[in-house]
Amino acid sequence: MNSSAKQLAGSVVIITGSVGNLGSATAHTLQEAGSKTILVDRSQDRLRENFPDLVDSPDHRLAGGIDLTNADSLAKMVQSTCERFGRIDAVVNTVGGWRGGKPVHETDLADWDFLFGVNLRTTLLCCRAAIPVYGKG
Fold first, then answer.
1. Which of 86, 85, 67 is nearest to 75 (CA)?
2. Confidence (pLDDT) at 2
3. 8 Å CB contact between 12 and 39
4. Closest among 72, 34, 31, 71 to 54, alpha carbons compared
5. Taking a C-beta distance cutoff of 8 angstroms, is the pair 51, 63 a contact?
6. What is the CATH number of domain 3-133?
7. pTM over 0.85
8. Phi and psi torsions of 23, nearest 5°
């Protein structure tokens, strides 16, 4: 095990967008390094389908049904994570989306609002929920 992996061993990491390609790769890498992972998605079913070996794992949590655009939903997820694992060491925000093709000056404002919400607001709200409890426990 290299020194980076040793530093991650036992860490508690929340990963948003964990069912996507980037999130899934991140989750597997952190798990191989010995991290305890909280895998976040809107759908509990998708989490169970993508991570069937973690359904009853004491070292990992499948946090489905989380609305990353809702501060209350995130606060509850962070609270339950702290209750189960005692702390949060990191948040990896991999959730995101893309709607493109048009030049900026022709982009519909509804598309812009969607992209802003899914790519920036989710990151802000996740950080706001996790930072106050970071390192405590």
1. 67
2. 57
3. no
4. 31
5. no
6. 3.40.50.720
7. yes
8. -65, -40
